[in-house]
Design a protein that fits this description.
By secondary structure, the chain is α+β, with helices and mostly antiparallel strands. It contains 15 helices and 12 strands. It has 4 domains: 101 residues, Phosphorylase Kinase, domain 1 (2-Layer Sandwich); 203 residues, Transferase(Phosphotransferase), domain 1, CATH 1.10.510; 37 residues; 42 residues, no CATH class. The longest helix is centred in the last third of the chain and has 40 residues.
Amino acid sequence: MIQASPIVQEPPHTEISDRVRHKKQYTLAPGVVLGKHTIIKPLGHGGMGEVYLALHDTLQVQRAIKILPNQEVTASARARERFMREARLAIQLDHPNIVQVVDADVETELGLCYIVMEYVDGGTARSMLKATGPLPEKRALLLALKVSEALLAAEKMHLVHRDIKPDNIMLSRNGVVKLADLGIAKCFWGTLPEERKQERSGMTGTPAYISPEQALDPDNLDIRSDFYSLGVTLYELLTGIKPYQGAKTIDIIKQTFHQSVPDPRAIAPKLSKACALLVMRLMAKEAADRPADAATLRAEILDVLNGREEMPELVHHSGSRHGTAHTVREPAAAGHLRGGHDWLRIGMVTGLTLFVCQIILLLLFDYLAEEPRFFRGLYLERLTPRSTAAQDAEADWQEGLYPVPGDGDEFPASGTAP
């Protein structure tokens, strides 16, 4: 078996992340064998390990292999357990919009753990953003729609991804969107509070994308925290920049808590109003102000894609997670105008309905009266001498062209007098 050795020179590959580009050494060299796979070249470096492109020796298909290097395996049994837990979680999420795990094992001779995954060969949303700049609204929303479907599957397992960002949204060459990297994902169902206390790991995730509650308490979250991360991702895909920026992590976290939710139309004015409101709603400071679940999220994205102009009004709490609630300025104005127009329409319809009902009631009472006002002219006509012209017209009445008034005949309820 070929032993692991450092790579002196980086092999050319356009998808290698910035962190890998600046690494002088890699754990594995091309040609190293892991199980039935032979390493071809490195692909990137994540929060928990390195990722390589490999070839299955028997099936001759390419796979992505993520490894936890020896120094991390020996340094922390907990790191090894977390790494293997990622494989167990991912293999249960059998969904077309989630990168599938094929195998996982420990290589004792090389002293590392590894996970074998399907190889997604179309790059990431990050690489797409770098290549083309801000994405068209429809394209960005379609990406978000597929991520929402992946989150729907995760929600059923009470799983929170905790690291949604453009780097972890992958695309195959035929356009299938895949959510990747469950390295810090966590299942909150069935975990006792004392167990959570033992597992506390401090702030997890990428600072620019984490929700306020994830920064405050990363071990007690629900799926709505991922919605916030998706909102930040959407903002970046649509504008080309992150909503909150800073040289230090603490600067970004402060903005996450205290700065008003930014309107993406300030950077990309051509965005539709509904799309901008959706992004801002996802980035609400309080989880309660975001969509309630993944099904609702998916429905709201579809509404925007289908051209719906109105979105739920965004309310968030600034200053702190328990500050005074107020509405974001632009959506609030839109909601106020929308509410005014609604009341105007309701008033007009109600007034018109009452007017029509009043006319109908007056006619009904008039018809049932002993001496109706509406028909009084007909009765008076029989009591006064008729003109010659009126007498000459008697033949027309007799021929049945019109019903003859009087003589015990009545007009139909829906008719009118001649």
